[in-house]
Amino acid sequence: MLDSDLVIQLGEIVGSGNVLTSDEDVSHRKHDYWVLSHLQSWVDVFEGRPGAVVSPHSVEEVQAVMRLANETSTAVVPFGLGSGVCGGVRPDQSTLLIDLSSMNQIREIDAFNLTATFDAGVNGLEAEEAVAEHGLTIGHWPQSIALSSVGGWVSTRAAGQFSTAYGNIEDMVYSLDAVLPNGDLVTLGKAPRAAAGPDLRHLLLGAEGTMGIVTGVTLALRKQPEKRQYRVFHTPSLSAGIEAQRQILQAGWLPPVMRQYDERETRRTFKTWSMEGHGLLLLVHEGPEGRVEAEVNAVDALADSCGLIRGDEEAGIHWMENRNHVPTWNELFDRGLVVDTVEVSSSWSQIEDLYNSVIESVSNIPGVVAVSAHSSHAYRTGINLYFSFAAAAEDPMDLEPIYLDCWKHIMEKTAECGGGIAHHHGIGRVRKPYLVHDLGESGLALLRSVKDALDPKGLLNPGNLIPDA
Asked: What is the CATH architecture assignment of 106-223?
């Protein structure tokens, strides 16, 4: 437990009502949305809780809390809205959890310069709705948009469903504020573009609370699109759909949404609109009316040249209306299942081998009842795959080892095929053992050196992201 004197000092900074210590009061801050944490709670073997939860309401309070933590060598875990899915939040009783959800002010919306500044704890959907009132959009639509925070987007290096045209969160961050482990405040980013040395914003982007505490974010905005149009194509093979996507992007067209589902996922997700023996490619085109019309015509021609068959656009509307509706983990546990999604990426030339290798490998794991994939983010140089797996066991205690085995096979097969092991959900604890595949031993040593320089006492989110030497 945290020292009682420390708890009293925290109360003097933020008010005693904003410091929680009882089991009941901290129960919703024990972990994030990682399925394994929920599974362990469901079978009543989860251990751990923060020693205290503190809820600051200003940047100055965050600084004061961090200075106190530094002086007392107290470990600190930043917490946004808890939507992370990789185990980035697993505090123990020696840890102080800083709940940023009370820092939820929209600081400024600048419709002339197309920027908006938010406290880090602002709910993502509320941020989008606020700029929409000005005829604008952030353009960042993660599936968790109604459950995640703006600061969490930055900390996990998130991607949204419209990323193919609008980019990922790193393409939208204009500037950010962060409190460092010693309590200092830094503002990183000052202009639309800079050559002022290395871009220090990237020390916080994707750092998952290990380098500093993001307290504010300025995002670059876009105007709401004039027109939106859907296209749906049946793909006779995985390679045909991938080739169509490659040609579309390398020709210079940028549909914000391009999602290709393999045959298994097409049957499950688009049952009404599926075609026997085919997968499905879904596109959303939006923007100025003239550009949308030109893009749709060009994409139709490219899809036809790749052997794709035009489908019913109602499938696209169905996806748009239902894209964020998923069952809860507990609903699946009650059915004897553990389910997860694993997003990876690769070059165009390697992606089909990666898909085949992962599907074959995971399918052979005892207990696995389904494994499939779709692509959801694509680039001129390559594409991602979003694998889904489901495993069953008569004894719920057997679900965890099967789950971890599935992750191991996906990570290792992805690395063997030359792919990147993490596209947009981050590292947390589930991917930490495999980070070496992306960074190499020298890269991991460099990451540890950066961590040691910024946080020499190792106070911020210990045990997350960075493998031990």
From this structure: 2-Layer Sandwich (3.30)
Q: What's the pLDDT tens digit per position in 345-394?
A: 999 999 999 999 999 999 999 999 999 999 999 999 999 999 999 999 99
* CA dihedral sign of residues 144, 145, 147, 153: positive
Domain ranges of the chain: 4-102, 106-223, 227-322, 329-434
- Check residue 469 and give its pLDDT: 87
144: left (phi over 0), alpha (psi -120 to 50) or beta: alpha
User: CA 422 to CA 434: how far, in whole Å?
Assistant: 10
Q: Are strands 95-99 and 75-79 parallel, antiparallel or unpaired?
A: parallel
Between the CA atoms of 89, 28, 202 and 137, what dihedral angle is there, to the nearest 10 degrees? 150
Domain 329-434 fold is GMP Synthetase; Chain A, domain 3 (3.30.300)
Task: Report the distance separating Cα 447 and Cα 425, nearest Å.
Answer: 19
Q: Phi and psi of 342, rounded to 5°?
A: -135, 115
Q: How far apart are CA 178 and CA 155, in angstroms?
A: 11
Q: Residues 31, 85: contact at Cβ < 8 Å?
A: no
Beta strands (DSSP E) in 80-195 are: 95-99, 106-110, 115-119, 136-137, 173-179, 185-188
Distance in angstroms (rounded) separating the CA atoms of residues 23 and 424: 32
End-to-end CA distance of the chain: 28
Contact 299, 291 (CB under 8 A): no
CATH architecture of the domain with residue range 4-102? 2-Layer Sandwich (3.30)
Q: What is the spatial distance between Cα 95 and Cα 26, in angstroms, rounded to a whole number?
A: 12
Distance CA 61, CA 55 (A): 9
Q: What is this structure's pTM?
A: 0.97
pLDDT of residue 1 exceeding 90: no
Taking residues 115-133, what's their average pLDDT?
98
The candidate with the shortest Cα–Cα distance to 199, out of 207, 189, 210, is 189
- CA dist list (Å): 352 to 44, 306, 443: 40, 16, 27
